Amino acid sequence: MEKTTVFDVIERMSALIRSEERKKCTEFGLQPVHLQVLDYLSRCNKYSDTPASLTNYLGMTRGTVSQTVLLLEKKSYVKKTTDTIDRRVIHLSLLPEGKAMLGQARPSELFNQASDFLKQDELGHYDETMVNMLSALQKSNKSHSFGLCKTCQYFTLLPDGHLCGLTKEQLTEEDSGKICQEHRAL
Amino acid sequence: MEKTTVFDVIERMSALIRSEERKKCTEFGLQPVHLQVLDYLSRCNKYSDTPASLTNYLGMTRGTVSQTVLLLEKKSYVKKTTDTIDRRVIHLSLLPEGKAMLGQARPSELFNQASDFLKQDELGHYDETMVNMLSALQKSNKSHSFGLCKTCQYFTLLPDGHLCGLTKEQLTEEDSGKICQEHRAL
DNA sequence: GCTACATATTTCGATTCGCTACTTTATGGC
DNA sequence: GCCATAAAGTAGCGAATCGAAATATGTAGC
Prior knowledge:
- In chain A, the strands form two sheets. The first copy, chain A, has a three-stranded antiparallel beta sheet with strand order 3-4-5.
- The relative contact order of chain A is 0.12.
- Chain A is globular, with a radius of gyration of 18 Å.
- Chain A contains eight helices and five strands, in the order H-H-H-H-E-E-H-H-H-E-E-E-H.
- By secondary structure, chain A is mostly helical.
- Chains A and B meet through helix 1, helix 2, helix 6 and helix 7 of A and helix 1, helix 2, helix 6 and helix 7 of B.
């Protein structure tokens, strides 16, 4: 029963954010999916910055993703680079203009205002809870990573070991070399 | 700094849910926005079940929403009813088939599995935190309600007063008659 | 080295989606 | 009654999406 409630609330937050995002999109003449692509590219590692990974992440067809990327390329939001080893694969990367667009389209005002409604000293505690929730969701997500932890953008080297910056989990040296199940799509 | 992290995590959850949802969509031959409409209609009250409210919620144009509703009507997911008092107004309602579709398309498996990764005794605590977060987001959302609290689907009558079932807030008799700022779009 | 198969991506035609501008119908103030 | 306003629908056009076939590169077996 409680289970349902918690995830129901998450769905509500998700819907709210999406609604705000769509409004921003029409403002800039983009579709939500375009922002999703930019967001993905701002977070993926070099093992998952390909059209194939993007296709898997978005759940669209290869053809559509190809067209979408073409559009974003025309607008100078992303750049294509052919892999030097395997010349079949294409690496996608965000260009400065793409990053700028992503920054503008984020519901940052919404978040700024929301934080005013939360007690400042509670935010740290919220943080921990939320990260646990996210971690659980990621673990149950079937879309696994193709990247190594040590190449993840959240990977951090500490004096006393390794740390995943997103889940705040300690990682062993061995773990860092393994394929990451957590961050691929994020 | 902490502020950024918390909302960043929410954005990650949101992105993950959307990704899963899109996969479900293509499975059923629907667009994400169609599910958004069904979801909205399952939660709106009689003051916000109109195409105009839906338009405001989705951030799309009236024409587009009109077409979208037409499509969902053809598929027997929703039903239109003309308002008896103001004959310009149309009320939309979910049909059983629409509810069934909504149930199928929800990332329920994702949530079920995610809950297995969380300690059962912590879920209640998570619940409180998440509801606070959602409440803060809703407060800062500019899309205000057009409905009265007492008509909200989350409104509950208790022996000792009134309760908002979503935010768990106590409501005075007076509050219950006011326009709700919290739940319109949800 | 050649063949067969696998993988990554693109191309293309048909279809659907979404926006803009315009129209229709209904309400309310004067 | 007349006009402004509001809710919803319609038509046409461009963009997005799908599905299937095509292209290009890499891999494995002989």
